[in-house]
Amino acid sequence: MKFDGDDNAYEFYKSYAHSVGFSVKKHQIKRTKEGQVKRRTYSCSKQGKKGFDKRREHVAFERPILRVGCLARMTCQLKNDGMLEIVSFEENHNHDLAPTPMKHMLRSNRKISYAQKAIADDAEKAGLSIKKTIDLLAVQNGGREHNGFLDKDYQNYIGTKRKATMIKGDGQAIMDYFRKAQAEDPSFFYLVQLDDDDDLIMNMFWADGRSIIDYKYFGDVVCFDTTYRTNEYGRPFAPFVGVNHLKQTVIFGAALLYDETITSFKWLFEAFLTAMAGNQPKTILTDQSAAMAKAIEEVFTESHHRLCIWHIYQNAAKHLSHVFNASDQFAKDFSACVYDYEDEEEWYKGWDDMLTKYNLRNNEWLDGIFSMREKWAMVYGRHMFTADMMSTQRSESINSVLKKYLKPKHNMTYFFDHYARLVEDRRYQELLAEFKMRDTIPVLQANVEMLRQASKVYTPKVFKMFQEEFVKVLDYTIDEINKNEVRVEYKVRYAGRGTEHFVQFESSSQAVDCSCKKFEFMGILCTHALKVLDKKNIKQIPRRYILKRWTKDAKDGDLRSSVRVQGSSEKLIGKRYCNLHYNFREISTLAAENDAMYEHASEVFSNLLKDLQGMRKCSDVGTSPEELCSNHEEDHRVVAGVKTKATVGRPKGRIKGALERRKSHKVQSKPQVHFDLSFLL
Description:
Elements: E1 2-3, H1 6-20, E2 24-31, E3 37-44, E4 73-78, E5 84-90, H2 114-125, H3 130-141, H4 151-168, H5 170-184, E6 189-194, E7 200-207, H6 209-218, E8 221-224, E9 237-243, E10 249-256, H7 262-275, E11 283-286, H8 290-299, E12 304-307, H9 309-319, H10 321-326, H11 329-339, H12 344-357, H13 364-370, H14 378-381, H15 393-405, H16 412-439, H17 449-457, H18 460-471, E13 476-483, E14 487-494, E15 497-506, E16 511-514, H19 518-522, H20 527-535, H21 558-561, H22 569-591, H23 595-617, H24 625-628, E17 641-642, H25 658-668
Parallel strand pairs: 7-17, 8-11, 11-12
Antiparallel strand pairs: 1-5, 2-3, 3-4, 4-5, 6-7, 7-10, 8-9, 9-10, 13-14, 14-15, 15-16
Helix pairs in contact: 2-3, 2-22, 7-8, 11-12, 17-18, 22-23
């Protein structure tokens, strides 16, 4: 037999060895002056014997012996026609050959293909364990023996890949991730702040093209919060989130910060505005942080800054636990100061009465939040649009979900992959919600013109909110209290009692303005305004009071056009493999029904395989993914790594002494006081 190259000869002997039941290796080689293979010997993998090493004379454990001096081999020599011809062949072995059920375990026949590597990489990004991934591939291939590799081969591949990332360093891995993301999505924005002294990464912010588009439509209100323990550096993770027209959480961008100082926050907010073309939100909701507040004041000069009310309640339960325990009424009085008042003078009186009633005039915590009352009391924020968000719990929800995927021990590359997975999951949930919205019709509690109009323009959850306001109209009374040539003023109350709300109406423009300011801070008309429209015999919502961000067409079709998935060459190999695997499985299922179809399919497959092998020889179809990466303009900055903080005090992972463990147990065993304040919200 003759072969046109060393590789073809090796592949032939490997195929022969697999059919017989042994593994092979390339043994001896001689080359010409030009470097061409002149003579090559391929031998059984058990050729030769293990040598004696004095250094291992007293070693307690050694690997089992694999080589037993087997002489089975095949030798090829270069002929005048440029072909390698078999000149020597020894087929006898001095050891047992592998039986058929074990032939797939032979080392020279084990290999993880590019397609399988791509699938394995996707599985790791999806959070699947090594065992689950191997099981998945085994199901696809019809059993573990058809995978083409052993479990330990896959484990070694994953370990080698992770080790390569560690060798590269997290700093360079972060920059490579951002550059690759920008190559795949030209609208991807990232900004990295380096330390001036040592070129270490301090702060980083990123947002993909879809996030920037979402901000264009729903960036009127932004929630911002930080959380820890999502990466191995313990850095604060800071997502910017909002709410879309479907009342779902939408992510505008995220950051990893070095610390929570004014300088870091200011850099981050400026980076965020750069990504969003300088468009500032109407309102930004945050936790109670002095550094954050100062940075917001300097950067978001056109935005209203509101504090998270949920955190206000949590801190109240902590600092005023004795009052909550002593009186059930205190929770309601405190809630009234947060939500109920519409007039500033009445609020002052209500706050003063609460301090007197519960003897809290000298309470330090209440004095502190009183000085910030304009950022949390609704009496000061009714004119500020908050999209029905009073707290940063949407940010905290994202943080809690992300923590399910990430552990502090994970490196930065793993963090970015799983953050991207979280973002894609949220976007798919949005797609499902939009499909359901367009595929169903909401149920009307009354078949009236205004509800029919609202059901057509509003998204389901917003329509539900509007309908709840509308059906309460009949329970309210209305009295005219003032009238002139331009407007009429009404007093609206629930069943003739309770809080009075004052509504002004202009007939010329159908403008309606309620003292509760629900439209201003939520974006839908309140019951009081709807009561006045009903009295004026107005049967449809005036167009000026249909906020586009709450409508079905809020995004003008951009959602469907922006969900197209792009991928690198490596990812595309995996996608192609999955598509072909599905198609061939359908063909195989049909062909197995009778002999004629089976024979026809086998012949077609055989011819197709030969065609593809021929195409691979004369093209770059078989080029590795690393060689197929596209060239693009890159950020060529070289980073030395990721800046870390020095450990203060003893490390967290140290072993505690018996006395410390005893003290810790005593502290944890103290009874804890918990307050369920969810009913207040």
